[in-house]
Amino acid sequence: MSGRTDLAFDPWDPAFLADPYPAYAELRDKGRVLYYEPTGQWLVPHHADVAALLRDRRLGRTYRHRFTHEDFGRTAPDPEHEPFHTLNDHGMLDLEPPDHTRIRRLVSKAFTPRTVERLKPYVERLAGELVDRLVTAGGGDLLADVAEPLPVAVIAEMLGVPEADRAPLRPWSADICGMYELNPSEEAATRAVRASVEFSDYLRELIAERRKEPGDDLISGLIAAHDEGDRLSEQEMISTCVLLLNAGHEATVNATVNGWYALFRNPGRLAALRADHALVPAAVEELMRYDTPLQMFERWVLDEVEIDGTVIPRGAELALLFGSANHDPAVFTDPERLDLTRAENPHISFSAGIHYCIGAPLARLELAASMTALLERAPALRLAEEPRRKPNFVIRGLEGLAVEVA
């Protein structure tokens, strides 16, 4: 199958990674679905299509519940990568019903609005403490000093990971998430496999401890959970914990630094936010739309679909471009403008359908808490130097964000 050769879309080009949004505008002008040969995927750039396909049951995050690799026309993963795939394939993000339904039902009990509301004082106190340290130091790296430790601590606290054990969580997560990029290198795969083994071994020991001595934490709750006879296997429990730790902070960390970098580049908007902290909830939504932390979500075609006259066969892979959908002028007025008062903001940053982010309320709480703490305690916060962007496409973020406190 030959792909388009006139696409500005190039997820390995530093210029594209610096600002992919003009290329997305070109994609939207060229059509509703475009084949991209370097990754063998069909790109879907329009908001209406992305929103509909996220809910379309003819697509799936996996095909293994219905087909073998051979039946689906796909090659089995490299056996040397097995620890990563075992870990990844048993998490609910990469499962379909009925397994997805069973696991999500059990896990969702930990993410009820009431549970998240109970976490609010802890999240706000921790955000304040982190910002106070930044202010006392006269500045630092907003990513390492505030954006990262806050969500890592919150999800680790929820799961019951002891404070002394938390240092490896972020490196493990970063190495595992390297496999979600397009065409990952063998070096990235090696790191992901090693992190998968180490993370799984650690959680297996922690689960064994909680079986002997349950606590008031999510791991203990998952061990005890049963709903109409359903339980989690040990592998499902390990995969669920890793998914919650990874998804529970990767997007929040990147949304925080992407968002503040956008504010620094739009000083008028930042001044308005500083003048009116009531804008924070709308600002959180707009910043997630404006520079989307998860740029793409992939789905397998389980039963052929037709998009604008193009038949996409079973076995194909769709690349739903969240970053493009969030800048679609058919949905967002003046989408390239950062508008912290945007009233209608149906962004797709948390996905949709059965894979809608279970932790979205917690992410919103964390983003609002850190933003409010920075506005209140560091009102003259400014950019100290231009940041370097991570060389990633799917998970969009910065290497760091150096700031000064006047």
Number of domains: 1
User: What does the radius of gyration come to?
Assistant: 21 Å
Name of the CATH superfamily = Cytochrome P450
Shape: globular
Task: Report the biggest beta sheet as strand number plus sense, adding barrel if it closes.
Answer: 5 strands, mixed
Which structural class fits the helix and strand makeup? alpha+beta
CATH architecture: Orthogonal Bundle
Q: Please write the string of helix (H) and strand (E) elements.
A: HHEEHEHHHEHHHHHHHHEEEEHHEE
Strand order across the largest sheet: 1-2-8-5-3
Q: Fraction of residues in helices?
A: 40-55%
* CATH third-level topology: Cytochrome p450
Strand share of the residues? 5-15%
As residue ranges, the low-confidence spans are: none
| CA(first)-CA(last) distance | 57 Å
Q: CATH first level: which class?
A: Mainly Alpha
What's the pLDDT, averaged over the residues? 93
Number of strands: 10
- What is the number of helical segments per DSSP (H or I, 4+ residues)? 16
Give a written overview of the molecule.
This protein has 406 residues and is an alpha+beta fold. It has one domain: Orthogonal Bundle (Cytochrome p450). It contains 16 helices and ten strands. It has helices spanning 14-18, 21-30, 47-54, 82-89, 99-107, 113-136, 142-147, 149-159, 169-177, 186-212, 218-224, 234-264, 267-275, 280-290, 322-325, 360-377; strands at 34-36, 41-44, 59-60, 139-141, 296-301, 305-307, 310-312, 317-321, 382-383, 402-404. The chain has a five-stranded mixed sheet with strand order 1-2-8-5-3, with helices on both faces. Helix 4 (82-89) crosses helix 10, helix 6 runs parallel beside helix 16 (360-377) and helix 8 (149-159) packs antiparallel against helix 12 (234-264). The termini are far apart.
